[in-house]
Amino acid sequence: MSNENKEVKNKSATAASVFDDVEITNKNLQSIGVEILPVHTGGTVHAKRIPGAFRTFKWWAASFWIILFVGPYLRWDGHQAILFDLPNRQFHIFGITILPQDIWILAMILLFFALLLAASTAIAGRLWCGYFCFHTVWTDVFTWIEEKIEGQPNKRIKLDEEPMSLSKLKVKVPKHALWLLIGLATSFSFVAYFVDAFDLWQRLFTLDWGVTETTAILTLGLATYFFAGILREQVCIGFCPYARIQGAMYDTETVVPTYDKERGEPRGRMKRAKPGEEAPELGDCIDCNLCVAVCPTGVDIRYGQQFGCITCGLCIDACDSVMEKIKKPKGLIRYASLAEFAGKELPAIWKRPRVIVYSSIMAFAAVMVLWGLMTMSPMDVKALHERAPLFVQMSDGNIQNKWTMKVVNKGNMPMKAEITVEGPEGMAFNVDKVLDIQPGNVGSTNMFVRIPRTQLKDVNTPIVIKVVDLNNPVVVEYYETTFIGPRVR
Amino acid sequence: MALHNPWPDEGNTGHIWDEDLRELDNPPPLWWMLSFYAGFIMIVFYTLYYPVIPLTDSTGEFTKGMAGWTQIEEYHDDYTVLKDWRKAKFADKEEKLATMSVDEILKDEDMKSYAVATSKMLFGDYCAACHGAGGQGNPNFPVLADDDWLWGGKAAQIEATIKNGRIGNMPAKGMMGNLTEQEIAEVADYVIALSEGKGNDDTVAAGKAVYTKGMCMACHGPAGKPLAPAGAANLTDQVWRFSADRDEVINVITNGVNVKKNGVYLAGTKQAVMPAFKERLPNAEVNVKRLAVYVHSLGGGQ
């Protein structure tokens, strides 16, 4: 571009304006090579629903979310199987209780799923967006309800344009009521993971919900109604950061629903050639626009990959059904990668660098989670060294250090924690008591350790604190710490 | 501003750079502007309602808003609620503290940890200035975390010390005040040897003789160990009331502790007074006990 620019600039030295000699009549983004793909902003997208393989798969994938509604009612050992008990800072997941000390395991689980998202996106595009995302699923269910109540898209568009009337209300009110109901059921189920579900039900009927619960359920419920019912695809296009991030995870080997331009173009309606005229050479696309009509985000897949596309595959269903009717091979729109269209051989999945990196991080996270769960001790020991004074000179020449011992019982059984200390010769220790600790509680006691001054070779002397659960002697925790003495002269 | 605007109809501001980079005039959405203006209106009410104007009136009182609200009042109100809540929650324990003796409290695990937990602030307010935040002591002020007690380390003795205070007393230059400088140096060496367990060495025999002559044993005991805790330091252990430094030991023997003449401290004498806290502490009846338990548990209680 530089040559051209220079010329313009040279001329501009003498001309009145730089634009004098430049063609500027149609200067917009398109003319400088940026292709603007249309995003549906003209009101509600009323997508057509047609049966097909991807439609079926979407329902199966969506049914995964039934777990959300059923989950809170599962019981385990007399308590809720999955309960994130924030007030008591305990996460119960079936038999496992996770206390704040073990929260890093949760971080590893999140890391695993973040990378699972990245890896699956790199291989097959926005699988999450298209099939599993709660927003996609809820929107899908909401529009399904809409179709059941209001009818096919053309009927819905007509209804929307009608002025408000009693007969319109008769159709609209049940729909919105049903949406709200689903929204509130969703938020109720969500909150039921944080407080006991049955208790929540009971207190619903006695009107005894707390402020936090009420606010959370109403806010989340209304948000579900608003986002899945009213905003729909605009959330994916305008709000969702994930949607944009996932688009950036593609490469040329990623398979996504793609329109086969080679085969489809030039598109056009199939016409019988009039006598004397030559039949036009057309591609397989008959420009029926069904792929656009079924798209829940209102994009035209024939423009190619675009950020409005959540890769749900519904256009594939639509196109295949048409290809079947016109007796052409299926797959004019299909899951394919850019490399495939360029005629390149796709490398095996396990040979792609992204997949290797992502899956190794996933493996790391998975191993850490397993390791964490397997080595998770039911006991957590903290030894807080007294700082004022760090050490005390005793009358018999011993140096004394004081610790506040805190022992957390992370298990399900009462604990009897006995604290002992191992250290240099001549060391004596004195622990106030054997700690009786109830599950989920912390026991605390003072511990004094005395070492003869003559045994201290340095300011710091390593000692090991050993805590044994007398009720279950398998549970032993060692805590390595430092005994501090005066400077050795 | 470009004189020549190739896009007159798109609503640009006329600022054009690099041929086609131009500034458009897109107003913010209505709802945004409305909340922006609403913010301005809020400021008016806020200014009137809350103390905003940074001026004082004739009495030096700052200008309050129409609501008369102040932050410190709100704090006090909240604090009162908290205090009342604490009072109600721990009323039975406080009652129990008042009726129990310190020894009983020490034996009751629950009451002991309650007494210790509620003492930290009291100790910080009333004791830490001299004895250190953790009882670690300060130069010339006794360590409370060790096991060496001038007035006894039993809980009841500690309680008596806190309640009534203690004034130590050590005459200058021996009981009769007649030791010479030479003798004082000798007895200082003897005392230092005592703490090292070398009191019977020949090298300090002279000092041992001075110890007898100066009648040190009257308080410090015949072997350097007081027979009963009555304020005199145990000279045989390794904890020093003031300092292990020889010059300082000589200084203490020469000038004594709390030596007064006509009601005035003698120059150089060690001033060591533990005030009586029964008058100083609020709710002393209970708080003295509480502190005695706390001090007892610092590391050297007997």
User: What's the domain count of chain A?
Assistant: 3
Question: In which range does the helix fraction of chain A lie?
Answer: 40-55%
By DSSP, the count of extended strands of chain B is: 6
Residue windows where pLDDT falls under 50 for at least 5 positions of chain B:
none
What is the CATH superfamily classification of one domain in chain B?
Cytochrome c-like domain
Biggest beta-sheet profile of chain A: 5 strands, antiparallel
Number of helices of chain A: 17
Q: Low-confidence segments of chain A, ≥5 residues, pLDDT <50?
A: 1-15
Outline the fold blueprint:
The complex is a heterodimer of chains A (489) and B (302).
Chain A: H1 2-14, H2 53-62, H3 66-70, E1 75-76, E2 79-80, E3 82-85, E4 90-93, E5 96-98, H4 103-124, H5 127-132, H6 134-150, H7 153-161, H8 166-191, H9 197-205, H10 211-231, H11 233-239, H12 241-247, E6 256-259, H13 261-264, H14 290-293, H15 314-325, E7 333-336, H16 338-341, H17 353-375, E8 379-385, E9 392-393, E10 398-409, E11 415-422, E12 428-431, E13 435-437, E14 442-452, E15 460-469, E16 476-484
Helix pairs in contact in A: 4-17, 6-8, 6-10, 8-10, 11-12
Chain B: E1 12-17, E2 21-24, H1 30-49, H2 71-89, H3 91-99, H4 102-107, H5 109-117, H6 120-126, H7 128-131, H8 155-164, E3 166-167, H9 181-195, H10 205-213, H11 217-220, H12 246-255, E4 260-261, E5 264-265, E6 273-274, H13 284-296
Antiparallel strand pairs in B: 1-2, 3-6, 4-5
